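FAQ

Q: What does a record look like?
A: Structure on top, sequence underneath. For example:
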């Protein structure tokens, strides 16, 4: 059985070098800081024809972490959900279900933040 690291090989038709792909990733990330690594991957696939960065032997999050641009998608999504729920609560004060959902989502956010803080130590 082939090793999973050796299974991915660069296609012949792909003309980008490793350094060019890293530059493209950083250019996209600097142009729109709100994009996550997943969204940048979709842009690379659709606009540049790069199927995966694993072909080059690195992950997109590694490149973004080196330049201190990386934001964790879990935390980012939870924060946006909390802000959306908070806006809804201000407009609709009698909506008790949204209030409960806000409390639960805020707890999930705290748990995720604590986990990532412990993980980085």
């Amino acid at each position: 059985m082939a090793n999973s690291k050796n299974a991915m090989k660069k296609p012949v038709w792909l003309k980008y070098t490793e350094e060019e792909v890293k530059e493209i990733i950083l250019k996209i990330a600097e142009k729109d800081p709100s994009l996550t690594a997943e969204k940048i991957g979709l842009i690379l696939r659709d606009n540049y024809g790069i199927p995966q960065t694993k072909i080059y032997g690195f992950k997109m999050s590694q490149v973004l972490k080196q330049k201190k641009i990386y934001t964790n998608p879990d935390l980012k999504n939870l924060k946006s959900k909390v802000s959306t729920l908070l806006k809804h609560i201000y407009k609709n004060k009698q909506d008790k279900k949204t209030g409960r959902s806000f409390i639960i989502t805020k707890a999930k956010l705290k748990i995720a933040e604590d986990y990532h803080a412990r993980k980085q130590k």
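Q: Is there anything notable about this one?
A: The radius of gyration is 19 Å.
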